Amino acid sequence: MALHPSARRVQDELTRLGIPAQIVELEESTRSAAQAAEAVGCDIGQIAKSLVFRSALTGKPILVITSGANRVDEAAFGQRIGDSIERAEPDFVRNATGFAIGGVPPVGHTSPIEIYFDEDLLRHPTIWAAGGTPRALFEVDPRRLLSASRATPTRVT
Predict the structure, then answer these.
(1) CB–CB of 5/100 below 8 Å?
(2) CA 42 from chain center: how many Å?
(3) In sequence order, what are the beta bridge partners of 15?
(4) Fewest Cβ atoms closer than 10 Å to its Cβ: which of 31, 82, 95, 105?
(5) What residues does 154 pair with on adjacent strands?
(6) CA 70 – CA 85 distance, rounded (Å)
(7) Mean pLDDT in runs of 10 for the chain (157 residues)?
(8) Residue 63 forms beta bridges with which residues?
């Protein structure tokens, strides 16, 4: 079965980056971390949520790859990076990444984006991340993903 075009774009980027991961498209939605964890049978902390924020200083997008068990403390995180951030609207997310909310992957965006990586994800041998649609996921070593995405590791809580 052929991958959805958005999932295919992510799979192609994973291959280009040398990440040995395979996109899996599921019947059920994996839009939320809880749904994704249940669908693949892992701990919610192993789900890598890709959340897009908008910089209050520059208006540029900021991607935070965070553990499904965590909630980004926007004020504390903003202080850590020297900026104030706000949750981005759906149109902003799609324009910034090329993907809709619920399926934003950690790689394969249409434009360069500043990326931060939740250190808590590094506690797991593997994590699951969105693969371009609300039903597509891939399993990956978090250290490989951190390196390939050129993200900055940080605390988000």
Answers:
(1) no
(2) 17
(3) none
(4) 82
(5) 118
(6) 17
(7) 92 96 90 89 96 95 97 94 94 96 94 96 98 95 96 94
(8) 52, 115
Q: What is the C-alpha end-to-end distance of the chain, expressed in Å? A: 39
Residue 145's contacts (CB-CB under 8 Å, 6 or more residues apart) are 19, 48, 65, 106, 107, 117, 127, 129
Both structure tokens of 22? 């395979």
Rounded distance, CA 71 to CA 86, Å?
14
Q: Is the overall model pTM greater than 0.85, yes or no? A: yes
Place of tokens 């649609």: 133
Q: Residue 3 has which token pair? A: 């991958």
Measured in degrees and rounded to the nearest 5, phi and psi for residue 81 equal -100, 0
Task: Provide φ and ψ at 92, rounded to 5°.
Answer: -65, -45
| Token pair belonging to 58 | 């520059």
Residues in the chain: 157
